[in-house]
Protein 1
Amino acid sequence: MSQNLTIIEHPLVQHKLTLMRREETPASSFRQLLWEISMLMTYEITRDLPLQEVTVNTPVCQTKSPLLSGKKLALVSIMRAGNGLLDGILELIPAARVGFVGLYRDEETLEPVEYYCKVPDQLEDRLVIAVDPMLATGNSSVAAISRLKDEGAKEIRLLCLVAAPEGVTCVQKAHPDVSIYTASLDERLNEKGYIVPGLGDAGDRMFGTG
């Protein structure tokens, strides 16, 4: 693995991820935990955002203080499961622009099939954070990132809860310029393309389907 992979080992992130892994965790709790863990992971993926100094008047005096600079971030959900990460991130960055790339995995070939794409304008001037809970084969993430680059994105980061080594390798090979942030690098993929130990199908567990 390369330096473009960051594993977020904060105790609260690891604790919540363990609760999410549990088979008996109901959909309502799974969604709540996903919201909470996405907020915690947002701190890490945004820790180097650029700042500019501005003048403000406090109730006591005038002072110089930092604010975020540059174009507003773009958050792009790799649907459908990526939608579960958006709410927590938007809680901390409510002004971010939001886009969607809809992909589903062909269960026979494990290849991604795109069915929807709508993203903010001026992606070339924004930090783009693509979100998807599971980085399994990596095929969907590679396809989504390629689409974002086609739309003009130049700086892209990928945020996922759980990653398989195969998925990380796939993304790094296709897009070596993209930084990956995850809460766990798991053992492997099984014969069906699911992460082991993983946490199952995040979309199904989030929405109570499957």
Note: The domain at 5-207 is CATH 3.40.50.2020 (Rossmann fold).
Protein 2
Amino acid sequence: MAALGSMLSDDGLLQQTAASDELVNPLAPKAPHFEGKAKACIFIFMAGAPSHLDLFDEKPILKERHGEPLPDSMLEKVRFAFIKKENALLQGSPYKFSQYGEGGMNLSELLPNLGSVADDLLLVRSLHTEQFNHHPGQLMMQCGRGTFGLPTMGSWMTYGLGSETQNLPGYVVLNSGRGSSGGATLWQSGFLPSTHAGVLFRNQGEPVLNLANPEGIPMSLQREGLNAIKDINANRYQEINDPEIAARIASYELAFRMQSAAPELIDLSKESKQTLDAYGVDRDEPKDLGGRGKQGDTYRSFAKNCLLARRMVERGVRFVNIIYASWDHHSNIPKELPYNAGCVDQPIAALISDLKQRGMLDSTMVVWGSEFGRTPLGENRNGKREVGTGRDHHPYSFSMLMSGGGLKGGYTYGETDEIGWHATENRVHVNDLHATMLHQFGLDHLKLTHRFQGRDYRLTDVGGKVIPEWIN
């Protein structure tokens, strides 16, 4: 019976509740507040803020009014990052939109592959936030508030549910493009134990830097050294019960197990050619496009990250954050937006189709989103009264895509006004998004708290409500 219990625990099928188990594995699976449909999340973060007006939210009237100024009354109390109010002009989208799927979801011509899986997508067009600069906005989306020192979504997920793998981190981060302005603060654990922080993986070479043993150090010798360090740390833990000591022990043990698990994870040689082609792992870079989103072989890197995300959730990873930057198109939208959209469209559609084909989409939530949207006004930081080729930061309305995890597919939620300025119908705050995501994992956002400096903190701060219309 003891052996059976150990095996079930290793496979994540037996909940560990004893206090001593936290010392052995702080990421041991935990029971949710109630039965949830989702077990894993792949959050694809488009750092820099894509233009909702060119991708998700068609505005014919904005196109008709292209080149017109806005009334001063609309601009009086508005803050911009760069736009000069006195010379700003409306800018319509040059891209055509089409209806996809049985629900007739309206998407830009730049996203044809996502259109092909429209019946599995929830399109939310009415998000809004208080933050209008990148780093605070990215922290808001990842942490629930636009301030430093808070746990991110992935940290809260593993804190509330643990992880179903002992050979890989419960929370993994994959990067493509040139890197987000938020950097490592977007996968921090904040005041939670450091075992809940995201672990940055590379998609080629050594998955985690310094993971392999130095030349000449056998595994047996490393094991003996780890056992000695573990005994010393365990004794200290018994004296002061500092959770960071448990996190330290767990990180050493996890690194030891990852030495065999991580290289196997990023080895795609056993994936079929059909799968590799579907994701676009060997795609070439477009020759006539580029800009802010390009850094090396970005198309191949992002495609490989999407495939790795599927492989990770198959192996029990709880939360995968794929970060792709940058979508900060203050200028040159005609060349830079098609590049970025082309980079992500095929791999994300393939990821959703792959998860569905494998019977994993119902238990895996896929989210496509960013920190805010882009203005219906053209960028004019030089002060000239002319239509620009870019758009400024826009917190008053933006769009996101979601799929799987018990959410409705083929459904569009919320609306913006006729020029895409304000979210007007079924407005969704970032904290509402987080509350609904947690709900799908069986977590009550009001109960998932951690006491720090005399206050009970939560991902949704002092707001947030679950949106039942999103749920199947």
Note: Residues 17-470 form a domain with the Alkaline Phosphatase, subunit A fold (CATH 3.40.720.10).
